């Protein structure tokens, strides 16, 4: 690691200055995401993160390589998984890396002008190369970490969606309700099959009210999946009652040649609940 105490001290003296300079122009360069937030807490934290980066980066001229790399990795990890940054387009974040690098070059230009002939051209060029090399490495590392955390967040959101795709709602110790809403494709129908069986088993459900009043369309594959669900539930001791089948939904199932003959059907959820086939305890 190339160390230069005088250069390090000079750069550190200007950390607050370049943070303010950076933030005053950031809304022009990145007019959305975290950079456009009017929230004072978000702004203060953004400035802190920016200022912290300067202090960690300038240590490249004052610390051992391992210490410097670990410090930078800590900063990258914090920013990459920060919710505000995850909600900001990646290209805008990378643009701010570039603008910060340009700030460092201007600051280095000032220092070189002030020290005049105290250093060789070779030494000065080396300073610029250090900044350039590390910014390229940091940008790549940040993209990797940002992508990783973004993927984890998407997977978590998909898991929530999957859970909501088949929300088995307990009405009593033995009775539960599964309200289906929206369009059901083959992918979602398979999720419903797996999740419903699992939840009914865990909740020890004996009777399930399967309400279709919120379902708009249904195709042959989905209808067959629903029949598979009803049969699978029967195998684990769950009796299913269908309710809320709209006229257009009923017509499409008949046209497809699918008849729900193995299940009790009620016109509405209210009538299904009032059914004497089970009692609430």
TrEMBL record:
Keywords assigned: Phosphoprotein
SUPFAM superfamilies noted in UniProt: SpoIIaa-like
InterPro entries documented for this protein: Bact_StressResp_Reg (IPR051932), STAS_dom (IPR002645), STAS_dom_sf (IPR036513)
Name of the protein this chain belongs to: RsbT co-antagonist protein RsbR
Domain STAS: residue ranges: 165-276
Record carries keyword Transferase: no
Gene3D superfamilies: STAS domain
Pfam families reported for this sequence: STAS
